[in-house]
TrEMBL record:
Binding of ATP, residues: 707
Transmembrane segments: 614-634, 734-753
Origin species: Carnegiea gigantea
Keywords: ATP-binding, Glycoprotein, Kinase, Leucine-rich repeat, Membrane, Nucleotide-binding, Repeat, Signal, Transferase, Transmembrane, Transmembrane helix
Signal peptide range in chain numbering: 1-24
Protein name stated in the entry: Protein kinase domain-containing protein
Subcellular location, principal: membrane
UniProt key word Signal: yes
One function term, GO molecular function aspect: ATP binding
Family the entry assigns: Belongs to the protein kinase superfamily. Ser/Thr protein kinase family.
SMART domains xrefs: LRR_TYP, S_TKc
Topology class, membrane: Single-pass membrane protein
InterPro entries registered for this protein in UniProt: Kinase-like_dom_sf, Leu-rich_rpt, Leu-rich_rpt_typical-subtyp, LRR_dom_sf, LRR_N_plant-typ, LRR_R13L4/SHOC2-like, Plant_LRR-RLKs, Prot_kinase_dom
Length: 973
């Protein structure tokens, strides 16, 4: 007995140690996981299955070894998880893979993570982690280490050289202390993917890196790397992708580069490389993307480029290439984008760039191409941008060139083209900018221009267009700039132009226009600059023009007569009214401004006064009549289809009435039973007012979003959204197709936004760790939201205050066009004298204007504040409220204190999108954001001002900046 007992115990110990009961390990691992969960924030309940009642292997995102039942992996990608990583995680010794990409996890990497000795995959990229990266060189089994796109600081990890099993290494987009790339990375002989973009690296590329013979992706872009590209690069025979753009590299391209026969993507843009391209690199047959814009290259392109068969993107703008362009270029390639602008190419324009019929961007501005523009492009219907500004091209353009069903910009300006604008231009229905200035175009302006409803800029100046200005241009509701100066246009200014209510800049100078200035021009409420000089205009200046908020007016050199309205005198300058013999000024005004105008005599005063008054009265009367008719019509229709949808009805009759009530606001074909048979797997969101589902319609194949309102509580929301959204039509406001009601159930059918909300988009990254939203996309979103809000505030018959502007209420469509959504708490301002005094609290923490702490009086200016916060999110990539700002502090406070501390504005801007190219534009937007978030509401700009200021900061206004955007998209691929 005495001897058997200890033996039993020994045996027992042995058994427990070496064959632990599955059960015991599993409960222990469960408690470790539950502790891991306790450290996280999970706003969208991705961890709802992580409860004691389930086994660890039943937890979502957890994988286990089927034999031992031990946890081997944790995977959460883009699950909106916040909080921190629990230090105890590595007590699970079987863990081989920890992947928490694209979340909002903050805090440090716990040093204890180095005890996860089985770990093979550690991917924490795209989070908000801070601090130094602890020494993880103990993770000897690591094959994948990606910590890109966080906020790590401190020393760049040099111990990485000890992790010799690494195949993937990403440390890009962090804020390490500036230093060289460690020589020791050369030990990572198994490395295939190296991603160190935007990680504050300086100095030369260590020679040791060229010994990484397995490397296929080599990305050191957006650092400050100096020196030359060594010919040793040709030893990395497996390279597929070289990204060295935005550094400080110099020297010539080594001819040995041509040995990299697998090379597909090559980008050394925005450096200081010079010299000619070695002809050998024309033999890089696998090239798909070749970019070296913004360097100092000279000479001709290698003729071999004409034979490439896989080339999709080619961008070499802003160099000094010369000679003829390889004639066959594009002939055998699936080109989608080419930018050869700002070089010195001569000879005929290449003919085959669109041979594969997939070209979207054709940019060849600022060269010396001559001769006719090849007719082959008339069949290039995929083009989004066609710009050959500033060459020596001549001749007439075939009809097909004007008919581009997808085009955004057509720019033939500053050449020697002749002939007419074809009426086929009506087919370019998506055109936003038509730029033909400084050519010899002639003939009539086709009325079909009025069909281009997306047109924003129409630049036709300095040609020989004749005939009248087509009244159809009044249909261009998006037009913001109209430049027809220096042509031979006749006839009167059509009063229909007054309907272009977004027009900010109108220049009709230097034509033969006659007749009166139409008073209707005063309807162009956005007009900022008006130039009608050098025409044959007669009659008085409509007094109503004085109401416009112009900053420039030029009516000089016409035959105008009568008194100059005093408002206009104040806007104008010495030259504004010159050369109109009949114009005169009020005696009283003469003492303030003396523009060489005579003082009016009594008769002139009366005549002028009378005629403008009559005009104003007529306009007012007709507007009134139209408005009344409109009201009647709307009311009638509203009554006809919808009386069952009004709020009172809903609550009284809703419960018992089992017939569907439908109100539709846009034409859309769907079956009622489709809408009410929503499937849980299509759930795309859930919020305060209801659940949102994606629904693919049976009839026309379209997709919509359906919001099912929470029972009962939803009716106020329903009627708010219906009343506001149902009536609004604006590109940047979410379209409400219909509302459906039965019993206690309510459904709203919206347009479907495939890119989700702005918050999600800001957190997403694409392959390679770049944020999905680069600055160009972010700017587009900022401007779109501003336009939508400006519309709500200034262009609706009753101004509407949204009251809950935030990044989750801004939805993005396929093209990142933003739409303002969720009008559940929005308010029209005039329902009662104290209409904007609101009893119910609205808004979201972090976005609420400070004045709402002491007053319930909501004004447009509180929306402006919230919009400013959204701008800050776009600029900084941060959330409105983060622990890092300090107790009770928000992003507005944080940004201001950074700016005041002389820490430099640059530290505020999102390092992942900041580059020298966009820095100035981002700084402009930062100024606007600080204006919008000013404490005193009265000092904040109006949304209309904001739109104007943003347009000034548009990185896409001037060539060639905007072409970077296409480039950036490429980098993201
Ligand atoms: C890393 O490698 C170096 C030599 O290559 C060695 O001196 C050092 O001790 C190693 N560090 C660790 C933590 O193993
Ligand atoms: C490198 O990869 C090879 C082949 O996959 C493998 O056999 C070797 O062990 C790896 N080297 C290291 C240091 O892990
Ligand atoms: C780029 O490198 C040159 C030397 O090659 C140096 O003089 C210059 O300051 C560097 N520029 C930047 C921005 O680092």
């Amino acid at each position: 007995m005495a001897s058997t007992l200890p033996r039993c115990i020994l045996l027992w110990i042995f058994l427990v140690c070496c064959f632990p009961p599955k059960h015991a390990v599993v409960t222990d691992e469960k408690s470790i996981l539950l502790e891991f969960k306790a450290h996280l924030k999970d706003p969208t309940n991705h961890l709802s299955s992580w409860v004691d009642a389930n086994s660890a292997c039943e937890f979502s995102g957890v994988s286990c070894d089927p034999d031992t039942g031990r946890v081997t992996g944790i995977l959460f990608d883009n699950a909106l998880l916040g909080g921190e990583i629990s230090p105890s995680l590595c007590r699970m010794q079987g863990l081989t893979s920890l992947v928490l990409t694209s979340n909002s996890i903050s805090g440090n990497i716990p040093p204890e993570l180095s005890q996860c000795s089985s770990l093979k995959v550690l991917n924490l990229s795209m989070n908000r982690m801070v601090g130094r990266i602890p020494d993880l060189s103990g993770l000897r089994n690591l094959e994948v280490l990606d910590l890109s796109s966080n906020f790590f600081t401190g020393e760049f990890p040099t111990w990485i050289g000890n992790l010799t099993g690494l195949a993937y290494l990403g440390l890009a987009n962090n804020m390490f202390a500036e230093d060289r790339i460690p020589e020791s990375l050369g030990y990572l002989k198994n490395l295939t993917w190296l991603f160190l973009a935007n990680s504050k690296r300086v100095g030369e590329i260590p020679e040791s890196l060229y010994g990484l013979k397995e490397l296929s992706t080599f990305d050191l872009s957006r650092n400050k790397i100096t020196g030359m590209l060594s010919k040793s690069i040709s030893e990395m025979r497996k390279l597929i992708k070289i990204e060295l753009f935005e550094n400080n590299l110099t020297g010539k391209i080594p001819p040995e580069l041509a040995n990299l026969t697998l090379l597909q993507e090559f980008d050394i843009s925005a450096n200081h490389f010079y010299g000619e391209l070695p002809p050998e690199i024309g033999n890089l047959k696998s090239l798909t993307v070749f970019q070296l814009y913004d360097n100092d290259f000279t000479g001709e392109l290698p003729p071999g480029f004409g034979d490439l068969q896989h080339l999709q993107g080619f961008s070499i703008y802003r160099n000094n290439f010369s000679g003829e362009f390889p004639a066959n270029f594009g002939r055998f390639s699936p080109l989608t984008s080419i930018d050869i602008s700002e070089n010195k190419f001569t000879g005929p324009f290449p003919s085959y760039l669109c041979e594969s019929r997939g070209l979207k961007f054709l940019l060849a501005l600022g060269n010396e191409f001559s001769g006719e523009f090849p007719t082959s492009y008339a069949d290039c219907k995929t083009l989004l941008r066609l710009r050959v500004n500033q060459n020596r091209l001549s001749g007439q353009l075939p009809d097909g060139i004007w008919a581009m069903p997808n085009v955004d910009i057509i720019d033939f300006s500053n050449n020697d083209f002749a002939g007419e604008i074809s009426p086929a231009i009506a087919k370019s229905a998506t055109l936003s900018q038509l730029t033909l200035e400084n050519n010899r175009f002639s003939g009539l302006l086709p009325p079909e221009l009025g069909k281009l409803t997306q047109l924003e800029r129409l630049y036709l100046s300095n040609n020989s267009f004749s005939g009248g200005i087509p009244p159809e241009l009044g249909a261009l509701k998006q037009l913001s700039s109209l430049q027809l100066q220096r042509n031979m246009l006749h006839g009167s200014i059509p009063s229909e132009l007054g309907q272009c209510t977004r027009l900010a800049d109108m220049n009709l100078a230097g034509n033969f226009l006659s007749g009166n200035i139409p008073g209707a021009l005063a309807q162009m409420i956005s007009l900022n600059s008006l130039n009608l000089s050098n025409n044959r205009l007669t009659g008085p200046i409509p007094r109503s023009l004085g109401k416009l908020k112009l900053s420039l007016i030029d009516l000089s050199k016409n035959q105008l007569s009568g008194i100059v309205p005093s408002d206009l005198l104040q806007i104008g300058n010495e030259d504004s009214f010159l050369g109109n013999k009949g114009l005169c000024t009020d005696k009283n005004m003469k003492t303030y401004v003396n523009y060489g105008l005579e003082v009016c005599n009594g008769e002139q005063m009366q005549r002028a006064g009378l005629s403008t008054e009559i005009l104003v009265t007529c306009v007012l009367l007709s507007v009134l009549v139209v408005a009344l008719l409109g009201l009647l019509l709307v009311n009638y229709r509203h009554y006809r289809v919808s009386h069952s949808c009004s709020e009172d009805d809903l609550e009284e009759r809703g419960e018992k009435d089992l017939k569907w009530k439908i109100e539709s606001f846009h034409h859309l074909e769907f079956d009622v039973d489709e809408i009410c048979n929503l499937e849980e797997e299509n759930l795309i969101g859930s919020g305060g007012t209801g659940k949102v589902y994606r629904l693919d319609l049976r009839k026309n194949g379209g997709t919509v979003a359906v919001k099912q309102l929470w029972k009962g509580a939803g009716f106020r929301v329903l009627s708010a959204e219906m009343n506001i959204l149902g009536k609004i039509r604006h590109r940047n406001i979410l379209k409400l197709y219909a509302c459906l009601l039965r019993g206690g159930m309510g459904f709203l059918v919206f347009e479907y936004m495939s890119k989700g909300n702005l918050l999600q988009a800001l957190q997403r990254e694409v392959k390679g760790g770049q944020p999905e939203l680069d600055w160009y996309k972010r700017f587009k979103i900022a401007l779109g939201v501003a336009k939508g809000l400006a519309y709500l505030h200034h262009d609706c018959s009753t101004p509407i205050i949204h009251r809950d502007i935030k990044s989750t209420n801004i939805l993005l469509d396929e093209d990142y066009e933003p739409k303002i959504a969720d009008f559940g708490v929005a308010k029209a301002t005039d329902d009662s004298p104290e209409g904007s005094e609101c009893s119910c609290f609205a808004g979201t923490h972090g976005y609420i204007a400070p004045e709402l702490a002491y007053t319930r009086k909501v004004t447009e200016k509180s929306d402006v504040y919230s919009f400013g916060v959204v701008l800050l999110e776009l600029l900084t990539g941060r959330s409105p409220v983060e622990e890092q700002y300090g107790e009770g502090r928000d992003i507005v406070y944080w940004v201001l204190s950074c700016l005041n501390n002389q820490k430099g504005e640059i530290n505020v801007l999102d390092g992942r999108v900041l580059s020298p190219v966009v820095k100035d534009d981002m700084m402009k937007v930062l100024k606007i954001a600080t204006l919008c978030t000013t404490k005193l509401p009265s000092l904040r700009p109006t949304m209309r001002d904001v739109v104007k200021m943003l347009v000034d900061a548009d990185p896409c206004t001037f060539r060639p900046r905007h072409e970077y955007s296409e480039k950036t998209e490429k980098v993201l691929l």
